[in-house]
Amino acid sequence: MATLMAGAMSVVLYSAHLNFPKEIQGLRNWAQALVLMVAGVVIFAVHGNSNILLLCSNVFIVWGLGFMVIGTERFYQLRPSWRLFHSAWILTILGLGYWMWIKPSFTTRVAVASLLVFILHVRGLFVIWKNGDNHSSTWFFGSLIFIESIMVMMRGILALTSSTDVNLMGTGVFASLYLAITHLMTLLMTVGFMTVCTRRLQITLERRSTMDPLTQVLNRRGFADIYAKEHALMRRESTFMTMLNIDIDYFKKINDAHGHAVGDCVLVDVAQMIGKALRVSDHVARFGGEEFVVLLPSTGLDRALHIAERIQAALRAPRVGVPPYTVSIGVACQISAEESLDGILVRADKALYSAKERGRNRIEVAPDTVTQMRVRA
């Protein structure tokens, strides 16, 4: 039953790979791993007294475990350790073959196979520990591999140091317990991998819903969420914040003269250069077209103007890959927590319109912003 379920799980994983080939790496390798392990278990079940089939069974299982490691590494966007993979199955053939035919020793074969499997599990654990995030899904996944590695290590140690029968074809308590746990762990490890994949997919979809796909900054929805959090903090701590409305000057002419591909490069360049000029606590979003909005929490007018000038200076500087361009910036400060996002956006937009009317490539402050700052002072 466990073998059949593993086969079914491989279909599920491969289907997920077909649906999310770029978002989640490693699914195909895990699907391949389950198919190989199912093949290994089936060969082991029918091998009878054939040492060749027994050796093939072990090689298939090592291949399966190796593909699990490769899949885990690819999931965390690491270079697959193919050297370890090939070393493991080659040593399985050489080690088991030597202690099968040249110098027969069942306990040594068990110890060698257990050591190689244990090394593969340790590699998987190291990858998860080094690259996994601190989340219950990661802990669940890692714990399952840890339990499986302990079981494998115990079998290898018992084979060399104890009189306990570690022959999995026997009817002893250890054999029954080992087979039950390892088959269950194989399924649970797959479930564990799927939980971390599900979390990765959830984060990816959430990111897509709040990020602009071209410039990789916040979109309007993501900006609204950030503003709501900063607005609540502003209300609680009685602070203020400033909004910058940034628009590329004569962007249509850039598209007409250089093409839309270059226009897209300019948009990406604007987003990157604005991000470099901001602090960690600041937020930038693209509101569509060539319009960008920057939120500066706990920032007064003087500091905001300094940041705006820094952005303009950075964008005026010549750079390889994009034609020269300038931006106009409208500035509005929010003093009252009663004002809404739409309210401050309208005021920043009016200041931007004023900058456009006065010749572009300049910074204008909303008139009511100056009045509010004087009243606050």
From TrEMBL:
Gene3D superfamilies listed in its UniProt record = 3.30.70.270
The membrane spanning regions, by residue number, are 27-46, 52-72, 84-102, 108-126, 138-157, 177-198
Q: Name one Pfam family in it.
A: GGDEF
Give the coiled coil ranges: none
Please provide, alphabetically and separated by semicolons, the GO molecular function terms listed in this UniProt record: diguanylate cyclase activity
Listed PANTHER family:
DIGUANYLATE CYCLASE DGCM-RELATED (PTHR45138:SF9), REGULATORY COMPONENTS OF SENSORY TRANSDUCTION SYSTEM (PTHR45138)
Q: Which organism is it from?
A: Duganella aquatilis
Give the Enzyme Commission number.
Answer: 2.7.7.65
| GO BP terms in the entry | cell adhesion involved in single-species biofilm formation; negative regulation of bacterial-type flagellum-dependent cell motility
Q: What is this protein called?
A: diguanylate cyclase
